[in-house]
Design brief:
Layout (H helix, E strand, L loop, with lengths): L4 H4 L10 H4 L1 E7 L10 E6 L2 H18 L24 E3 L10 H16 L4 E8 L10 H10 L4 H11 L2 E7 L2 E2 L3 E3 L10 H8 L10 E6 L2 E9 L4 H16 L10 E5 L10 E2 L2 E2 L1 E2 L2 E4 L2 E4 L5 H23 L4 H16 L3 H4 L5 H6 L1
Parallel strand pairs: 1-5, 3-8, 10-13
Antiparallel strand pairs: 1-2, 4-9, 4-10, 5-6, 5-7, 8-9, 11-12, 14-15
Helix pairs in contact: 5-6, 9-10
């Protein structure tokens, strides 16, 4: 059977997806060790193997069409912590499992480079606004997405296939042995589906910064607005924040002002005029965990290094247990490389040069 991307878009004659393939099981996955409410769960959608196979066939086809029309520095997201956002003078978007040779390190390094380069000049400071969305993937409007895909020269048949895939999807929740009644959903792209990260990236592709002193970094559903301020003039930065709020309103994305935060990089500690999202003041913090790296207002890397060392030490226990079981050295080396070394070297290009001799020795 020919399952090329062009054939996959015709799973039924009018480029539709059979209802049985669109059905998904929602499994709540905890975001943190201690659960205090429903918002502490991430709703991951499990679809059929056939559906995932079709998505994997369509993914490279869709990428080949859209990539040439996007910023050449952008990379596409993969939630396994290998995203990349990048920059021209305007914005960055990215997920890196869809873009070769890109990683989280690139995203953080590029953000820090723009900040540090700006701070070399007199009378300057920088502000980073970390924007939080409420269930970003679940707010995509299929009809609006279809229009955006058409503007990116995606064939009409593939646009209709994607729209039908996202429309009238049956889903139900499974928690242990308990299963809920099924409901029909026509909004959003299921978290856990192969196409969802790319579709969200294309959906937000038109959201950019119009001023060279403001960098808009979109990391799938993580959005960061960097303001490079000179002579205390925040006019352009505040205007871009207002435009982001307006764009989100027109595209059905819901901002969470309570979870959005700002980190300021400046020598003078005098208070700045408050910044607000939808009339709600944004909290100014001393540090923020950005794509796995803790960025502090004084750009110290001890918090990040301490966290990595703690994780690596916890995993060393399993290596010792495997050694007691007398596993072959080759298997122990593979376990170390995959489970422990990957932790120790996480974002190493970001923090290693700025780490103290003591923290380097410990790590």
């Amino acid at each position: 059977m020919d399952l090329t991307p062009s054939k996959a878009t015709s799973s039924t004659p009018p480029c539709q997806v059979p209802a049985c393939l669109k059905t998904s099981i929602i499994v709540p996955v905890p975001k943190k060790p201690w659960i205090t409410g429903l918002n502490d769960y991430r709703p991951v959608a499990l679809t059929s193997v056939v559906m995932k196979s079709l998505e994997r066939l369509i993914l490279p086809h869709l990428k080949s069409i859209t990539t040439p029309l996007l910023d050449p520095l952008r990379s596409l997201y993969h939630r396994s912590k290998s995203f990349v956002r990048i920059a021209g003078s305007k914005s960055y978007l990215s997920p890196s499992s869809y873009r070769a040779n890109r990683s989280v390190d690139d995203a953080v390094n590029l953000a820090l480079h723009s900040i540090l380069q700006h701070l070399d000049s007199l009378g300057t400071y920088a502000r980073i606004l970390f924007v939080d969305f409420s269930s970003a993937f679940n707010t995509i409007r299929p009809a609006l997405l279809q229009d955006k895909l058409s503007q990116l020269s995606v064939p009409a048949s593939l646009c209709r296939w994607i729209t039908h895939f996202l429309t009238d999807r049956r889903q139900y929740v499974r928690l242990g042995k308990t299963v809920s009644d099924s409901i029909s959903i026509s909004t959003g792209s299921p978290q856990g589906c192969v196409l969802s990260p790319l579709l969200f990236s294309l959906y937000t592709n038109c959201c950019t910064s119009s001023h060279q002193s403001v960098k808009l970094i979109r990391f799938a559903d993580d959005t960061t607005l960097i303001g490079l301020i000179s002579n205390g003039d925040e006019t352009a930065y505040r205007r871009e924040v207002a435009q982001l709020v307006s764009w989100c309103g027109h595209n059905n994305l819901q901002l969470n002002a309570q979870k959005s935060q700002i980190v300021d990089f400046r020598k003078v500690t005098a208070p700045l005029p408050p910044l607000a999202l939808m009339d709600s003041p944004i909290t100014i913090v001393d540090s923020f965990r950005f794509l796995g790296t803790t960025i502090t207002r004084d750009l110290k890397w001890e918090p990040t290094i301490s966290s990595l060392i703690k994780k690596a030490q916890q995993r060393m226990f399993f290596l010792r247990q495997l050694r007691k079981l007398k596993l072959p050295p080759r298997m122990l080396a593979q376990f170390y490389t995959a489970i422990i070394e990957s932790i120790i070297t996480s974002s190493i290009t970001v923090w290693y040069a700025g780490a103290t001799r003591h923290t380097n020795t410990n790590s």
